[in-house]
Amino acid sequence: MRKFVMMLAVAAMTACAGGVQKKDVVATPVVEGAEIVLTQPDLEAGATINMALKSRCSSRDFSAEPLSLEELSGVVWAAAGVNREDGHLTAPSALALYPVKVYAFLEGGVYLYDAQAHKLVRVAEGDHRALSARQEFANNAPLNIAYIADTKVYEGRNMPADVVRFLCGQDAAGYAENVNLYAAGNGLKAITRGSAQSEEVLKVLNLCPERYTLVLAQTVGK
Ligand SMILES: Cc1cc2nc3c(=O)[nH]c(=O)nc-3n(C[C@H](O)[C@H](O)[C@H](O)COP(=O)(O)O)c2cc1C
Fold this sequence. Notes:
Bound molecules: flavin mononucleotide
Helix content: 25-40%
Largest sheet: 7 strands, antiparallel
Order of helices and strands: HEHHEEEEHEHE
Shape: globular
Distance between the termini: 33 Å
């Protein structure tokens, strides 16, 4: 009995509850279409960065409840949104080349994040969420992200392909951790994933595998 109580206590301590709960937030439904115009980030919203760091953890249990437009906007802005007048992004990038693009897999299609215009542009129709992962929990989660690098960005820099891939992966890890912290600070759940059906994703998106590489993936939801 004592052991059981202790186990419950440990479970309570380690359970990933979906970050800091939000209060009084605007929640506009997302309407999918050729483009999704995003809302500007509310810089006053969310937990402190220290609270987000304290509550960040990986979740593997998501409901099908969709993200609101404000949440979707906040997530992609956290990943790779413009945060300065010179056009640089929330996440750092080796040599400021930004080869990694954010592809959002929603129920009705796959969208490429246009950071400068702060909008999602549909690049494939249909529900391809399962392709963006190799784990069942992602199939019905409201948002999966594939971080896909355009290695052409490094052309002419005389860098070996493995170094280019490594740097692209490092860029993507920064994007993904921004999202993890955004989620933790805004009542959402998230997990960084190395597992994805990369070849199939590139095929669906019509991206040439000699040039484009899926370097990391992520699931975000509630
Ligand atoms: C680069 C990277 C890839 C990962 N890939 C997966 C994955 O494919 N599937 C998964 O369930 N978890 C994946 N994880 C999550 C780790 O398993 C998780 O971070 C680790 O167990 C520590 O738990 P925590 O994030 O809750 O602290 C990945 C994490 C990182 C950083």
